[in-house]
Structures are given as structure tokens and as C-alpha cells.
Amino acid sequence: MLEGEDVELDKKNFQKMFPNLAKELESDEHSIPMNSVRGDKKTGEGAASKKFVNYVPDVIDFLRRCDSDKQGEEIIAYMEKRREIPREYAAKLRVQLREKGIRSFGSKKDHDYYLKHDQ
């Protein structure tokens, strides 16, 4: 094939060349529902959620993803070691974790928390 040459594939040849990709594209397993369609860009952009744009999770966000106190201690130690939290703050977090448990930092955040709450 020459550089810049247009390639046209029909469905049968595409399936032959890329069987796994064709199967994935035809399945509904990874589909995303569309609730509405907007005709102009300005209206669409205005309707889009901006809740978590440029949001950077902090140590509490990570602790809220933990299932156990042990995981919480690992998060605190990791962030302290990387100097993402000061030693004094890490000590306060450890006291709270030891005395009140991991759920004292808030309810559990599931893996898709930000997708569900970005509405």
C-alpha cells in the first residue's frame, strides 16, 4: 500500500482482516446509551457536566475506595512516602483509621463513582 492511498473495506473483508475488532464493534457489551442529541455545539457544551473537570483526587478520595483498614494504611504510607501528604497529616489520618476505621473517612466509592456522579 502506498502512503496516502485510500483504502476501502467492505464489511466481509473487515471481518476477515480484524475478526476480534469486528465482533467487539457488533456486540452491545461496550455500548454507551445516548439520552439526547443536540443540534448545535454551544447548546451541547452548555449541557455537558463540568463537575469533575480538572478534579484531582486527594488522600481521602483514595481512602474511600479502600475495603479494609489495612488498605487504608497502605494508601497513607504510599502518599506519605511520595510526599503527597505531610508526615503530620499522615499521623492524624492513622489515628483516625486506628480509632474509627476506614469508613470514618466516608462511604465507599465504587470504581465507577465519578461516572455515576458527574451528572
The total of helices stands at 7
Instruction: Tell me roughly what share of residues is in helical segments.
Output: 40-55%
- Ranges where pLDDT stays below 50 over 5 or more residues in a row are none
Radius of gyration: 23 Å
How much of the sequence lies in strands comes to: under 5%
What's the count of strands?
Answer: 0
Principal-axes shape call: elongated
Mean pLDDT over the residues: 79
Question: What is the terminal-to-terminal distance?
Answer: 46 Å
Structural class: mainly alpha
Spell out the helices and strands N to C: HHHHHHH
Specify the biggest β-sheet: none
Molecular structure report:
- The protein has 119 residues and is mostly helical.
- The protein has a domain at 59-116.
- The protein has seven helices and no strands.
- The chain has helices spanning 11-17, 19-26, 41-47, 59-63, 69-81, 87-100, 113-116.
- The mean pLDDT is 79.
List keywords for this structure.
7 helices; 119 residues; mainly alpha
How would you concisely characterize the structure shown here?
The protein has 119 residues and is mostly helical.
SSE layout and pairing:
Elements: H1 11-17, H2 19-26, H3 41-47, H4 59-63, H5 69-81, H6 87-100, H7 113-116
